[in-house]
Specification:
The chain is α/β, with parallel strands linked by helices. The protein has one domain: Rossmann fold, CATH 3.40.50. The chain is about 40% helix and about 15% strand. Helix 10 links the parallel strand 6 and strand 7. The structure holds zinc ion (ZN).
């Protein structure tokens, strides 16, 4: 059997007639229940989407992150869903991150933005995705957090910049690292291209999953020096 990411890749670059033929051969299916979906825009059916569990409070208390650096650097954090290893949200994250499906990020980012708007969190005027190092960006072809950020920005009517924050050095994956090692791994990894673009702004940082908050805190620490009005974070999910 041909692997699904290759099919998705082929559909992305194929002319419409081929794309619809591929759609007939391999109809998109819900990542939760396997039901057929009308198109590839959102990889979950409505029923499964509404079943995903939300954090008890959102914006949630950053002190739940167990990482002192995260409390110091972030004014608050928002997450759309709770993340469980092996759960539907992880399947969504994998589809976004490793499935060559950037459009999934746009759709999920819009849901994030619309939900964020309904909370009491201050509306941002600048949305910044956590950047990938250029070697990883080259391998993956797109930055999943930037796709989420575009969706969030369009739902909130806020400016999105994918170039203000940059990764100065490649970092190893945070998976399987302890809290303290995660912080050491990312501390000092980010740089801000134009501090004046951040001064006085309400900044919203975007990442896919909030685990310890180390990555977001490292990026927020760099932003703090530029004097923003506030720094919040929004992620697709927060680890339970
Ligand atoms: Zn479903």
């Amino acid at each position: 059997m041909i692997n699904p990411p290759l099919i998705a890749k082929a559909a992305q670059f194929a002319p419409p007639a081929w794309a619809s033929l591929l759609g007939l051969l391999y109809p998109p299916r819900c990542l939760g229940c396997g039901a057929r979906l009308p198109d590839e825009t959102m990889p979950l059916c409505h029923r499964c989407l509404l079943r995903l569990e939300r954090p008890a409070s959102s914006p949630f208390d950053v002190s739940a992150a167990h990482l002192p650096e995260a409390h110091a650097a972030l004014d608050g954090a928002f997450a759309l869903w709770l993340f469980d290893a092996g759960g539907v949200v992880q399947r969504l994250q994998h589809a976004l991150k490793y499935g060559n499906r950037p459009h999934v990020g746009l759709a999920l980012g819009q849901v994030m933005g619309m939900t964020y708007r309904a909370t009491a969190a201050p509306l941002p005027d600048l949305v910044l995705p956590i950047p990938l190092h250029r070697t990883r960006l080259y391998e993956r072809g797109y930055n999943q957090s930037a796709m989420l950020a575009r969706g969030v920005g369009s739902a909130l009517g806020a400016m999105v910049s994918e170039t203000l924050l940059a990764r100065r050095r490649a970092t190893r994956s945070q998976t399987n690292l302890s809290h303290q090692r995660r912080w050491e791994n990312v501390a000092g990894a980010f740089a801000l291209a134009a501090p004046e673009a951040v001064a006085g702004r309400r900044v919203l940082l975007i990442d896919d999953v909030f685990t310890t908050g180390a990555t977001l805190a490292a990026a927020a620490t760099v932003l703090q020096d530029a004097g923003p009005a506030s720094i919040h974070a929004a992620t697709l999910a927060v680890a339970r």
